[in-house]
Amino acid sequence: MAAYATPADLLKRFDARVIGDLVSDNGLKVDRQSLQDHPVLLAVLLDASGEIDASVLQANRYTTANLAALTGNSLSHLIRITCTIAFGLLWERRPWSDDDDSGRDEAQKRARQQLDMLRKGQTIFDVDEVQDAGLPAVEATTIQRIQSNAFPVDQARGHFYPHRRLPNY
């Protein structure tokens, strides 16, 4: 399965200079062009996508096909969540002790809250089946159903109870 965001998506949302530092293992900053297919960046995007799958596929609310078919604002929201989680995973990979988080922890917390709200159905993506799932289904009991039920009261009619009055439908 492919990641829900590409390295280009991540670079649109976060500073390439910081990402270049975070993916480097030899102390040399990786340039923007090399980040497009850097294995560390691809791995954290897949990890973030797997975390999203683990959260929103619960109880068959969404399928991977639903998520892959998203368009418009829902797709942009999914990409944002994926990139925010991936960026946090990059920071976990190379934590800095003198780190000024500058909102990074808050962004991670918000992304996790979004996943939790998607999992619970408090927010949803633009998928018809999921939109309709929250609507109540009301079925009226028919006269045939009432007559076909063998209630003990109906079996004793004529002996102890008056005849049932059925609604006029």
How many strands? 0
- Label the structural class: mainly alpha
* pLDDT averaged residue by residue: 80
Q: So how many helices?
A: 10
Residue share in helix: 55-70%
Q: Report how far apart the termini are.
A: 54 Å
How big is the Rg?
Answer: 27 Å
Biggest sheet architecture: none
Low-confidence spans: pLDDT under 50, at least 5 residues? none
Give, in order, the helices and strands: HHHHHHHHHH
Strand content: under 5%
Envelope shape: rod-shaped
Explain this structure to me?
By secondary structure, this protein is mainly α. Helices cover 57% and strands 0% of the residues. The protein is built from 10 helices and no strands. The chain has helices spanning 7-13, 16-23, 32-35, 39-56, 64-68, 72-93, 104-120, 128-133, 143-148, 152-155. The mean pLDDT is 80.
Short summary:
The chain is an all-alpha fold and 169 residues long.
Features:
169 residues; mainly alpha; 10 helices; 0% strand
Give a topology summary:
Layout: H1 7-13, H2 16-23, H3 32-35, H4 39-56, H5 64-68, H6 72-93, H7 104-120, H8 128-133, H9 143-148, H10 152-155
